[in-house]
Specification:
The chain has eight helices and eleven strands. The chain is of the alpha+beta class and about 325 residues long. A five-stranded antiparallel sheet has the order 1-2-3-5-4. Strands 6-9 form a two-stranded antiparallel sheet. α4 packs antiparallel against α8, α5 packs antiparallel against α6 and α6 runs antiparallel to α8.
């Protein structure tokens, strides 16, 4: 029996949704790069609590809101934050807009990393593999429409318009509690993402030039900092996941004050992690984007490498 179709997501409304969503509290004191505040709100329709992300007028006018709302509305995957509703009220430089999405009760991966850095603690290898697998499944879905790319059982969806996120950093990865398991990760913040329509030049490789530049070249992949190469691509997201894994494995380390740039001499991977984890990270971090494996190729290897690494660890401690 074929799986049931996901329920359609409501379209963007053109008026504030104040009768459905009631503010409980403001979660951010200052505005973010592409938001005018994050709020915890009551959803009176679904009878639960969710998140409201408000947008600045300039980010409504320059297309940031439209990009994020349309891509989140399109995505339905456990490792992508769930879109609930959105509205935009067009009034020129007084425009207002919000996206409502699921509440991830454990905050962001960045929050967790900051806490571990302050406490001078490191992450266990099992947690790192969990992050690795879940981020790989998120990329497999947004790039190729594959539900679980780590299984190796699915082919790319030929009708899927590739999404290149371009902002895969710990602050944009939300954590949701799962009793008895490591947290579920959900990729968020699609404001500077790019969608490559099926058949468009560059679609097969997911390469091109973005409308919005990488904001911090210290964190950007190498191809985003050279004039002769594409400034973004599907393989750029691969690099950013590898960078995330590298920093997680470098804790305890005051990495967060250095902007996540990849100074491997100063940010040495802890010796407590397995060769398999190092090898997987290195594949994601190849300097030349052409040499990095595609997510469809490398992701099915991750569970195999994880089993090998943890089996070797258990053998050592016997």
């Amino acid at each position: 029996m074929p799986p049931a179709r996901p329920a359609p997501r409501p379209p963007v409304a053109h008026h504030p949704l104040i009768e459905r969503f009631i503010v409980i509290k403001q979660l951010t004191v200052t505005e973010g790069c592409f938001n005018a505040g994050i709020f915890k709100v009551n959803d009176l329709s679904r009878k639960n609590v969710c998140i409201e992300k408000r947008f600045k007028a300039k980010d409504i006018l320059n297309g940031i809101f439209d990009t994020e709302a349309s891509l989140l509305r399109r995505c339905q995957h456990r490792n992508v934050v769930e879109y609930i509703h959105a509205f935009v009220e067009d009034a020129g430089f007084k425009s207002t807009a919000s996206i409502y999405m699921e509440l991830c009760d454990l905050g962001s991966l960045n929050d967790l990393m900051e806490r571990y850095a302050r406490e001078e603690r490191g992450f266990c290898e099992e947690f790192v593999w969990s992050v690795f697998r879940q981020m790989a499944n998120a990329l497999g879905y947004i790039q190729y429409g594959i539900t679980e790319v780590t299984s190796g059982q699915e082919r790319r969806n030929p009708n899927w318009a590739m999404i290149v996120h371009r902002d895969v950093f710990p602050k944009n990865v939300c954590l949701k509690n799962r009793p008895g398991e490591f947290p579920r990760l959900a990729l968020a913040d699609f404001g500077v993402s790019e969608e490559i329509p099926v058949g468009q030049e560059g679609w097969e490789n997911g390469i091109g030039r973005g409308r919005h530049k990488f904001g911090n070249h210290l964190r950007a992949p190498p191809e985003a900092t050279v004039l002769e190469g594409p400034d973004w691509g599907a393989q750029s997201d691969i690099y950013l996941v590898g960078q995330m894994i590298h920093i997680i494995c470098s804790l305890p380390f005051p990495a967060l004050r250095h902007g996540y740039h990849m100074d491997r001499g100063r940010m040495r991977l802890s010796d407590c992690y397995s060769v398999q984890l190092r090898d997987a990270r290195d594949a994601f971090l190849r300097e030349d984007w052409r040499a990095r494996p595609r997510i469809m190729t490398i992701a099915p290897r991750l569970p195999i490498l994880e089993r090998e690494a943890l089996a070797a660890y258990r053998e050592v401690i016997r």
